[in-house]
């Protein structure tokens, strides 16, 4: 599944200062492709994109409180947070609010 | 309306206009609202705070403390917008402090310079080097990475006042938001800093001093500020200071963010608790005087900046750090008055 991931508010520093990543993520159980949720995507991001200080990005299996998430420019609190089901060509944005003002 | 493939059926319509898809959940009210309604309620709430608290008078000159970060960038944008829309009649300026931190402040100052053009607000930059003869880079070279935030915090507060005096403004506004204030309430409780606890929730401070400061974002959630900047594509800078872990504040911050996730109203509730604190009239509070050396407001013989500077210039940078100050007679009494309070900016 083709997705565009965008990191902002300082989070880009955790992935080699690259803000926009075009990625191909498939979620499989055995041989079968299954639906990809935000929860799966976060685990994938942590494993594949975050190069340093993962604790700045995640806490438990979710984002660290203070990191905003938007799926197709919509607050993920409206689409079910970790249970949000992702679709082809979705754009997921992560913005930290934790850096200075 | 801008449409990006929205999840069909999952996201509800805006609960205010019922026309467009909701784009965010407001932490303050839990309402699900669209972008357009969000802009409107966000700006109007700040306008209400300004009007209800009589923050400004027509004709006043106002400096916006601008760091290039999210809060001050949104503040500059919204202030310029509201000033036009509601005819506040204010003369607005951007005021930035250059601490002299290579790779951090030089970059964020570039953002402020772009904001100067984008928002049409004249910019004044005051530097630590000009005011104190030292850049933060030089200070860190001398004292190392311990306590450097104390120097920076004390110097910044004064630098903002001195810059404001140079601009001949009537007031300074800063971008401190609701999350910051809740955090400071918690910190001041943990530190037992009664004097600061009493005033950290005031929307305007320093009215008895030369240049009062106010916080139009006192009730504005950080989440909404960042969402606003994101949706409006405002140009801000978001790199952490290369010298500052500021660990203690970090713990309070994390605590506030954890609370917010469970119950977003908690932030406003903490501010309310801070406002409702009443300090026993028998408590001795620090007397505000002026620094014998530079004339800046101080509850001691010398202000904190002068003590720190004296230490730097004499090659004794530990002066003024920790509990013992320099030859401050008023400092010898062991009362609540001489608690050191770190580098809090409130």
From TrEMBL, chain A:
<comment type="function">
    <text>Acts as a sulfur carrier required for 2-thiolation of mcm(5)S(2)U at tRNA wobble positions of cytosolic tRNA(Lys), tRNA(Glu) and tRNA(Gln). Serves as sulfur donor in tRNA 2-thiolation reaction by being thiocarboxylated (-COSH) at its C-terminus by MOCS3. The sulfur is then transferred to tRNA to form 2-thiolation of mcm(5)S(2)U. Also acts as a ubiquitin-like protein (UBL) that is covalently conjugated via an isopeptide bond to lysine residues of target proteins.</text>
</comment>
<dbReference type="GO" id="GO:0034227">
    <property type="term" value="P:tRNA thio-modification"/>
</dbReference>
<keyword id="KW-1017">Isopeptide bond</keyword>
<keyword id="KW-0819">tRNA processing</keyword>
<dbReference type="Pfam" id="PF09138">
    <property type="entry name" value="Urm1"/>
</dbReference>
<comment type="similarity">
    <text>Belongs to the URM1 family.</text>
</comment>
<dbReference type="GO" id="GO:0005829">
    <property type="term" value="C:cytosol"/>
</dbReference>
<dbReference type="GO" id="GO:0032447">
    <property type="term" value="P:protein urmylation"/>
</dbReference>
<dbReference type="InterPro" id="IPR015221">
    <property type="entry name" value="Urm1"/>
</dbReference>
<feature type="cross-link" description="Glycyl lysine isopeptide (Gly-Lys) (interchain with K-? in acceptor proteins)">
    <location>
        <position position="101"/>
    </location>
</feature>
<comment type="pathway">
    <text>tRNA modification; 5-methoxycarbonylmethyl-2-thiouridine-tRNA biosynthesis.</text>
</comment>
<dbReference type="GO" id="GO:0002098">
    <property type="term" value="P:tRNA wobble uridine modification"/>
</dbReference>
<keyword id="KW-0833">Ubl conjugation pathway</keyword>
<protein>
    <recommendedName>
        <fullName>Ubiquitin-related modifier 1 homolog</fullName>
    </recommendedName>
</protein>
<dbReference type="InterPro" id="IPR016155">
    <property type="entry name" value="Mopterin_synth/thiamin_S_b"/>
</dbReference>
<dbReference type="InterPro" id="IPR012675">
    <property type="entry name" value="Beta-grasp_dom_sf"/>
</dbReference>
<keyword id="KW-0963">Cytoplasm</keyword>
<feature type="modified residue" description="1-thioglycine">
    <location>
        <position position="101"/>
    </location>
</feature>
TrEMBL record, chain B:
<dbReference type="GO" id="GO:0000049">
    <property type="term" value="F:tRNA binding"/>
</dbReference>
<keyword id="KW-0067">ATP-binding</keyword>
<protein>
    <recommendedName>
        <fullName>Cytoplasmic tRNA 2-thiolation protein 1</fullName>
        <ecNumber>2.7.7.-</ecNumber>
    </recommendedName>
</protein>
<dbReference type="Pfam" id="PF01171">
    <property type="entry name" value="ATP_bind_3"/>
</dbReference>
<keyword id="KW-0819">tRNA processing</keyword>
<feature type="binding site">
    <location>
        <position position="97"/>
    </location>
    <ligand>
        <name>ATP</name>
    </ligand>
</feature>
<dbReference type="GO" id="GO:0002144">
    <property type="term" value="C:cytosolic tRNA wobble base thiouridylase complex"/>
</dbReference>
<comment type="function">
    <text>Plays a central role in 2-thiolation of mcm(5)S(2)U at tRNA wobble positions of tRNA(Lys), tRNA(Glu) and tRNA(Gln). Directly binds tRNAs and probably acts by catalyzing adenylation of tRNAs, an intermediate required for 2-thiolation. It is unclear whether it acts as a sulfurtransferase that transfers sulfur from thiocarboxylated URM1 onto the uridine of tRNAs at wobble position.</text>
</comment>
<feature type="binding site">
    <location>
        <position position="71"/>
    </location>
    <ligand>
        <name>ATP</name>
    </ligand>
</feature>
<dbReference type="InterPro" id="IPR011063">
    <property type="entry name" value="TilS/TtcA_N"/>
</dbReference>
<feature type="domain" description="Cytoplasmic tRNA 2-thiolation protein 1 C-terminal">
    <location>
        <begin position="289"/>
        <end position="319"/>
    </location>
</feature>
<comment type="pathway">
    <text>tRNA modification; 5-methoxycarbonylmethyl-2-thiouridine-tRNA biosynthesis.</text>
</comment>
<dbReference type="GO" id="GO:0005739">
    <property type="term" value="C:mitochondrion"/>
</dbReference>
<dbReference type="GO" id="GO:0016779">
    <property type="term" value="F:nucleotidyltransferase activity"/>
</dbReference>
<feature type="binding site">
    <location>
        <position position="180"/>
    </location>
    <ligand>
        <name>ATP</name>
    </ligand>
</feature>
<feature type="domain" description="tRNA(Ile)-lysidine/2-thiocytidine synthase N-terminal">
    <location>
        <begin position="62"/>
        <end position="246"/>
    </location>
</feature>
<dbReference type="InterPro" id="IPR014729">
    <property type="entry name" value="Rossmann-like_a/b/a_fold"/>
</dbReference>
<feature type="binding site">
    <location>
        <position position="175"/>
    </location>
    <ligand>
        <name>ATP</name>
    </ligand>
</feature>
<dbReference type="GO" id="GO:0002143">
    <property type="term" value="P:tRNA wobble position uridine thiolation"/>
</dbReference>
<dbReference type="InterPro" id="IPR056369">
    <property type="entry name" value="CTU1-like_ATP-bd"/>
</dbReference>
<keyword id="KW-0547">Nucleotide-binding</keyword>
<keyword id="KW-0694">RNA-binding</keyword>
């Amino acid at each position: 599944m083709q997705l565009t991931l965008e990191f902002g508010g300082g989070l880009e520093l955790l992935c080699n200062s690259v803000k926009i990543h075009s990625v191909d993520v498939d979620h499989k159980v055995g041989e079968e492709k299954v639906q990809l949720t935000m929860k799966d995507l976060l685990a994938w991001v942590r494993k594949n994109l975050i190069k340093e200080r993962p604790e700045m990005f995640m806490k438990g299996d979710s984002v660290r409180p203070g990191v905003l998430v938007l799926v197709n420019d919509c607050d993920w609190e409206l689409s079910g947070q970790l249970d949000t089901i992702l679709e082809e060509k979705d754009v997921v944005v992560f913005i930290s609010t934790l850096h200075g003002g | 309306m801008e449409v990006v493939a929205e999840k069909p059926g999952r996201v509800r319509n805006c609960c205010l206009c019922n026309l467009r898809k909701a784009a965010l959940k407001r932490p303050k009210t839990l309402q699900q609202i669209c972008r357009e309604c969000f802009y409107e309620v966000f700006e109007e709430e700040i306008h209400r705070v300004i009007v209800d608290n009589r923050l400004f008078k027509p004709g006043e000159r106002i400096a916006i403390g601008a760091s290039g970060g999210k809060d001050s960038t949104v503040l500059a944008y919204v202030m310029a917008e509201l000033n036009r829309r509601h005819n506040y009649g204010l003369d607005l300026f951007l005021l930035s402090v250059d601490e002299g931190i290579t790779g951090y402040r030089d970059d964020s100052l570039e953002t402020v310079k772009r904001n100067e053009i984008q928002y049409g607000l004249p910019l004044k930059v005051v530097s630590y080097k000009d005011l104190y003869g030292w850049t933060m880079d030089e200070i860190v070279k001398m004292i190392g990475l311990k306590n450097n935030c104390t120097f920076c915090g004390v110097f910044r507060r004064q630098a903002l006042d001195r810059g404001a005096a140079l601009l001949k403004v009537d007031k300074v506004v800063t971008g401190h938001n609701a999350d910051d204030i809740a955090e400071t309430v918690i910190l001041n409780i943990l530190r037992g800093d009664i004097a600061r606890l009493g005033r950290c929730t005031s929307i305007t401070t320093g009215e008895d001093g030369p240049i009062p400061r106010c916080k139009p974002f006192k009730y504005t959630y950080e989440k909404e500020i960042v969402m606003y900047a994101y949706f409006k594509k405002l140009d801000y800078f978001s790199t952490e200071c290369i010298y500052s872990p500021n660990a203690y504040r970090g713990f309070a911050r994390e605590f506030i963010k954890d609370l917010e996730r469970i119950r977003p109203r908690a932030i406003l509730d903490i501010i309310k608790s801070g406002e409702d604190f009443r300090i026993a009239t028998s408590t001795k509070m620090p007397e505000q005087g002026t620094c014998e050396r530079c004339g800046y407001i101080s509850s001691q013989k010398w202000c904190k900046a002068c003590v720190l500077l004296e230490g730097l210039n004499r090659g004794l940078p530990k002066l003024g750090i920790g509990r013992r100050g320099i030859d401050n007679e008023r400092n010898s009494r062991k009362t609540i008055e001489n608690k050191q309070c770190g580098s809090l900016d409130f």
